[in-house]
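Sat 14:20. Reprocessing the chain from the morning session after the first attempt stalled halfway. Input below, unchanged.
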Amino acid sequence: MKKYIIFTISLVCFYFILNLIIGSIVNMAFQTEWLDAWSRGQQLTSSVTLGMLTNPIDFISLIGSFIISIVITARVKAA
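Finished this time. Tokens:
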């Protein structure tokens, strides 16, 4: 039970942290020439997530936080 709680809390926290970091980096570096690539990224994200997500930043943040949470949870010993 302890592992599930740690996994859930770390998943939510790292999702928001990664989303803020990646979002700020993209906002600083984004140029108007990238609009075509951004729209293709949205289409790809939408098809991979079956229409649940359209923002590539959300998808990358979700996958990254999931991997980090698995690593953290694997290091916690079962009670």
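Helices lie at 2-29, 35-48, 56-75.
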